[in-house]
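Researcher: Go.
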Amino acid sequence: MRTTIRLDDQLMAAAKRRAAETGRTFTAVVEDALRQSLGPVRASGKRLPVKLPTVGGRGVQPGVDLNDSAALLDLMESSR
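Model: Structure:
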């Protein structure tokens, strides 16, 4: 099927480079990318905890909830 899509210039250039590097057509590269993106979502196992680095402080301030983005924004705005 033929269709027209608009792509970001950098994305288009990267897809054309990939096609040239792999000896495939631009269409094949786009089709493969879509198949991968639209394929089934794989259920992953339990994730490992992430340690967030802090700089120049003693970690999160008492009472700060990193899961509440609105409260974080309010706190950052009030400290200015």
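Model: The two ends are 56 Å apart (CA to CA).
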